[in-house]
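User: Sequence in, structure out. Go.
Assistant: Echoing your sequence, followed by the structure tokens.
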Amino acid sequence: MSAPDESLKEFFPKYKPPIRPRKNTCVGLGMEVMKKLKVLEKDFPGITKSMMLVSCDENIQDLVDYATSSPGPQGFLIETEKDHVMVAIHIKIGGRHGVFLSDLGYHISRVVTVMDDRCYPHTGWFIQSDQPHCRKEYNYQLNLQNTNYIEWHERETRGSNVKERLSLIYVARAYLTAVSVTEKRNLVWDLRSLLARDPKGNLTAGIYFPLKSKTTEFTMFFDSNSGKQRKKLKFETFLELQKIPDEVVDEVEQCNDQLRLRDGELLSILQRLATIIADDEYMAELLEVNNKIVQLSAGT
């Protein structure tokens, strides 16, 4: 608990975030999948010791510079954001080295196989999601300059516009500060979401919104009897529960059920969010903490 007059800037460095069941970021999801995979120990002796959380730096600007400056990320401890984690297992097939990757944080519904020689059973490019408005394709491959890293390439296609992104996953050693660094960093991330997905990783229902100095609304989507619904709703609508229009309550309840929450839980979450968003002083502090982390990672 923080002191009553303690600011977020003072409280945040001391806070030790818990990993909460059913409220997981990539860190909690990685821990959960490792826990569940332990049942394979009988059939695959040694798998429990082989599993590890590994760190990922997203949006790499200069691949060669990053990968060759040092054997591992220690040279970038100040100027980096360890903002994502996943599970890795090193494997050998007929003497050939490879890595299994499980990334539930990015809702990848398959185990990706990365072989050093990029030959079978190397996964290669695959379609992660294919929606009418957006198609995402992923590819994972060993970095040739530094075999401690796996390159994660993302290709996003919207109509004729194609955007590419590169991330680097450090797989030489386990990432030991996932909770104290990555989980904590995600607490002040400036995009918030609560989502449900089907077994293939496709979005089915949820809410999401960016955090800005003047955030006023969020997007809610769900399936209804008349098809897929996507609504933009004002946070202020939820400040007083008794004043929320009946049709909005009905839509929130439909989304609530598809998120598999307890009765009335989403409505309660939205009411608490509306109160937080309306607190200009707190929001300014939160965005300042996030910006400080971004500046540190950029070395500015």
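User: And one key feature?
Assistant: The two ends are 32 Å apart (CA to CA).
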